[in-house]
């Protein structure tokens, strides 16, 4: 790319590439943890931080690290977190290099690699009290969770740990929420699979088990809604169209639920029409309106799209069962079924 091309690409990237998507990719890589939404901003933090300091304004499409006193657009984020030059960042985001998950190169000051020192059955009083405070009995969590002790930058920590599909640990305690050794989803198979159930977090999954005593399903625990990618949704639909969604009763949960159902409707539409469902997901990279681009690529006009959104699928929104509560775990703790 010459200078003129770089300038044009940079202008397009700043306008079209969502900063929020980039920070969620850093969560998936295990480099950052997602702290949640406060007001109109999404907060992220490094694993060793108790409270995340990086705020992302999705509407303005900018980020700011309150601890470091720096921020900017998505190009500035790649420069900061992947240690790239401006030219390298633009080239990477413009898709002129092979598409890949963002793998940030940690800087020396971040410290040595996190070391897991012990994994055992849960026995620490503080963790037992934390689990009980979430409405879960120790015997119910035992088949899934462990007590994980790890060391980071010379300091030792411990928490309840759940394994994820990347070989890392999802860690939870009264003072810590994050991942170590890689992020990603967790999957559990119970009995003979007759459907798939999708949960945001492990305690939602455990709460559902306690409330329903259900078996014979595959559970996908997202561990973060950032992990609910188009690729994951398609993989689920290709495997089994009977899907129950137990996402949170908040703005993000609503958005993810609607998005999942719409992808399922478009998937069913393509099957009915005999159209291919191996969609070009690379073409959606960095887009805010992925479904809109898919419709455009398929040459589906607005009136036809309105009919697609009426198609009945076997993907169901289960949030009505814990209406008035933030999530399944809050419903359990609220004492509705005690």
TrEMBL record:
Single GO BP term: DNA replication
Gene3D superfamilies per UniProt: Zinc finger, CHC2-type domain
Coiled-coil region(s): none
SUPFAM superfamilies xref list: Zinc beta-ribbon
InterPro entries registered for this protein in UniProt: DNA_primase_Znf_CHC2, Znf_CHC2
Pfam families reported for this sequence: Toprim_2
Any GO MF annotation of the entry: DNA-directed RNA polymerase activity
Location of the Zinc finger CHC2-type domain: 43-94
Source species, domain of life: Bacteria
Protein name: Zinc finger CHC2-type domain-containing protein
């Amino acid at each position: 790319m010459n200078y003129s091309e770089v300038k044009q690409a940079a202008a397009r990237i700043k306008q079209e590439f969502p900063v929020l998507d980039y920070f969620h990719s850093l969560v998936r890589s295990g480099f950052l943890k997602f702290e949640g939404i406060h007001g109109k901003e999404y907060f992220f933090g490094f694993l060793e931080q108790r409270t995340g300091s990086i705020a992302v304004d999705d509407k303005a499409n900018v980020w700011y690290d309150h601890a470091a006193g720096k921020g900017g657009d998505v190009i500035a984020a790649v420069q900061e977190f992947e240690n790239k030059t401006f030219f390298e960042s633009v080239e990477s985001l413009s898709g002129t290099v092979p598409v890949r998950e963002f793998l940030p190169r940690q800087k020396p000051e971040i410290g040595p690699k996190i070391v897991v020192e012990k994994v055992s059955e849960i026995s620490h009083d503080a963790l037992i009290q934390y689990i009980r405070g979430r409405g879960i009995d120790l015997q119910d969590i035992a088949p899934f969770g462990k007590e994980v002790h790890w060391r980071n930058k010379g300091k030792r920590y411990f928490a309840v740990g759940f394994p994820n599909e990347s070989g890392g640990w999802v860690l939870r305690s009264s003072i810590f929420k994050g991942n170590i050794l890689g992020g990603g989803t967790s999957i559990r198979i119970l009995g003979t699979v007759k459907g798939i159930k999708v949960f945001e977090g492990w305690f939602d999954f455990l709460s559902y088990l306690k409330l329903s005593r259900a078996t014979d399903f595959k559970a996908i625990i997202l561990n973060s809604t950032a992990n609910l990618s188009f690729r994951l949704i398609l993989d689920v639909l290709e495997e089994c169209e009977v899907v129950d969604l137990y996402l949170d009763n908040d703005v993000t949960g609503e958005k993810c639920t609607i998005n999942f159902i719409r992808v399922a409707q478009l998937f069913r539409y393509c099957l009915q029409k005999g159209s291919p469902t191996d969609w070009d997901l690379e073409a959606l990279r960095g887009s805010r309106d992925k479904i809109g681009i898919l419709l455009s690529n398929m040459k589906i006009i607005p009136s036809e799209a309105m009919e697609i959104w009426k198609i009945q699928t076997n993907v169901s929104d289960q949030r009505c069962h814990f209406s008035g509560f933030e999530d399944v775990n809050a419903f359990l703790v609220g004492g509705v079924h005690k």
